[in-house]
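thought: fold this chain, then report.
action: predict
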Amino acid sequence: MQFGVVNRALKGETSCGDACFIREFGNSALVAVIDGLGHGIYAAVAAGKAVEYLEINYTKSLTEIIRGCHEELKTTRGAVMGIALIDPDRSALRYAGIGNIEIRVKSRSVVRPVSVNGILGYNLRKVREEEFPYSPGDIVILHSDGVSGKFDLNLYPPEFLGQHPQTIAEGIAAEFGRTRDDLTIVVARQDITEV
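observation:
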């Protein structure tokens, strides 16, 4: 599996309130984007606590991870999070998200995961864990609200999407990254040749 990451703080800040987590285990990969509420050091603390929880609990179900992060973040200002499990052996992509983290998937199948409203550490009403078909070559992108709502993965030509995930992440950040907010983009792809 190949990954690309862009993570940057709001212009003028030294701490980024966004974070990401990537862990490969077996043939699967767990990818998460976390956005601590607001920006600066306190947002970074909230996002960091979620990453610490993920470091220890990444093999749990996505629902268990979300609920566990909710408990861990109760002493912080809170965060939103999207988390995806890419499981090529099962040809499956699982997703659960709380708050305004977006996931975009370029696939031959129709894949439209949705995050539900809420804030980890404050109000977690429900967790919706969804499963979709996944094939090698599919591109999975998670990003925080530091990416403009105008971003549309379907507008990119195949030549761009065929590049390394790091190049894709940097291209999205350059074109659609907001300077008024922290930004995190994670791009994941298993090349067909990796099968």
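thought: worth noting. Residues 2-194 form a domain with the Phosphatase 2c; domain 1 fold (CATH 3.60.40.10).
final: tokens above.
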